[in-house]
Amino acid sequence: MATVQTLDKIRQSLQRHLGKKILLKANKGRKQIITKKGILEKVYPSVFVVKLDDETNGYSRVSYSYSDLLTANVKLQVFKDQNKLHVS
């Protein structure tokens, strides 16, 4: 079971990457995985918000909880070079 300290460590590590370009992979269930590029926009006590580059789905922002990262339902990769789109 995840402790509060574990979730706080995840939140703190995300705060270091605020405003950076990321690659988001989210498991939507039934073998559906979405992959989007965006910018880590906000970090709140319970959730984080990603502003998506691609607005074709009708929404420009998505939010996930830190437990989604802990359970690997959501995976984030920070781009190495913020000007070029190379994934670290």
Spatial arrangement of strands, main beta sheet: 4-3-2-1-5-6
pLDDT average, as an integer?
86
CATH class: Mainly Beta
Percent of residues in beta strands?
over 45%
Characterize the quaternary organization of these chains: single chain
Radius of gyration: 13 Å
Span between N and C termini?
A: 29 Å
* Biggest sheet character: 6 strands, antiparallel
The tally of beta strands, per DSSP, is 6
List keywords for this structure.
single chain; 88 residues; alpha+beta; SH3 type barrels; 6-stranded antiparallel β-sheet; 2 helices; globular
Which secondary structure elements does this structure contain, and how are they paired or packed?
Elements: H1 4-15, E1 21-29, E2 32-43, E3 47-52, E4 61-65, H2 66-70, E5 74-81, E6 86-87
Antiparallel strand pairs: 1-2, 1-5, 2-3, 3-4, 5-6
Protein name: Veg protein
Organism: Romboutsia maritimum
Task: Give a description of the structure.
It is a single chain. This protein has 88 residues and is α+β, with helices and mostly antiparallel strands. The protein has a single domain (4-83), classed as SH3 type barrels, CATH 2.30.30.100. 19% of the residues lie in helices and 48% in strands. It has two helices and six strands. The protein has a six-stranded antiparallel beta sheet. The protein is globular and about 35 Å long. It starts with a helix and ends with a strand. The model has no long low-confidence stretch (mean pLDDT 86). It comes from Romboutsia maritimum. This is Veg protein. InterPro entries: Protein_Veg (IPR009366).
Q: What's the gist of this structure?
A:
By secondary structure, the chain is α+β, with helices and mostly antiparallel strands. It is built from 2 helices and 6 strands; from the N terminus they run αββββαββ. The protein has a single domain, classed as Roll (SH3 type barrels), CATH 2.30.30.100.
